[in-house]
């Protein structure tokens, strides 16, 4: 199947799009990929939505405008890619994530984006709503990408850890017998980006330069490191805003911009190291993906903290900028083929679970024609 995966992650930096040929279990070929960044205005509107999301009415005007703009931005990304495809995997933008572990029907996860409009705009069927069946079954609804990591890592030595450092961090651990364990590690670039924006007006700490010029404050780091999330056994997942209050009250505000950035980097890395007690066996190597792998301060601190070599996924031939988008291309194929998306070891569902829905351009065209 020729698919286009589309991901708009928690860092709100833009839409990643990637072309993949796949049968859902294996990858035939990766094709073109691109990122279509959001304007500052769009990023501001999305961030506002995240703050409002817990009490947001589905008919809210800002929500509707944002959703339409977001969908349009995804359609532009597909057009810019300029590739033919049989299916699009459209993650949408998570604005709220509140799973209720082990309680079927009690949690919720909310990704905005209008799949029918995207199918209409592109003429390609769209797989979407990847997380809600899992949450409805009492799973965490995240992470979803681990099954794709496992498909890509067949030739690599195990046990292996893949760390994704986006707005939030997550880990995929693959054992010698292909056992899969995955969960969110803690905040990653989200709080760091917010700090940089507040203190310097920059969207993020380019290459970690500011953090490298600062010093970790041991008291603030200790305070943050006591967060109970880190001790909870997996499965576990996070909303981008989950650590917001903890970070606000940790004493960060008294620090300089550079020391605050260094301390937040220290915390991101501590969260990764804190996964070790939750893993059946220490990884032989750690592969880092997501934008955080470009932050030199993060990569240096990871290499110091972790007991095995730390590499970027690009070092084993993967594309760390495209990986999540590629994964949603593969997951789209899995939706179409009725293959499971989530597993007891990834989201805590009792047994492997299918998910997602597909909408085709023709159905919505027919619906429009009937009006
Ligand atoms: N050159 C760089 N130097 C430092 N940090 C960078 C660099 N490039 C990207 N980043 C960081 O990576 C972030 C984007 O990462 P990524 O695209 O993996 O996140 P995402 O996919 O939106 O999030 P998630 O995986 O949580 O859904 C940026 O917000 C920024 O903080
Ligand atoms: C609810 C949600 O959108 N979660 C994201 C977020 O960003 C990183 C981490 O938190 C991960 O659990 C997940 O994304 C990746 C793509 C996943 O599901 O594998």
UniProtKB/TrEMBL annotation:
One Gene Ontology term of the molecular function aspect: kinase activity
Swiss-Prot/TrEMBL keywords: ATP-binding, Carbohydrate metabolism, Kinase, Nucleotide-binding, Transferase
Pathway: Amino-sugar metabolism; 1,6-anhydro-N-acetylmuramate degradation; Cell wall biogenesis; peptidoglycan recycling
Keyword Kinase listed: yes
EC number: 2.7.1.170
Gene3D superfamilies in alphabetical order: 3.30.420.40
Top-level taxon of origin: Bacteria
Transmembrane segments annotated in the record for this chain: none
Function statement: Catalyzes the specific phosphorylation of 1,6-anhydro-N-acetylmuramic acid (anhMurNAc) with the simultaneous cleavage of the 1,6-anhydro ring, generating MurNAc-6-P. Is required for the utilization of anhMurNAc either imported from the medium or derived from its own cell wall murein, and thus plays a role in cell wall recycling.
Family from the record: Belongs to the anhydro-N-acetylmuramic acid kinase family.
NCBIfam families: PRK09585.1-5
Name assigned to this protein: Anhydro-N-acetylmuramic acid kinase
Gene: anmK
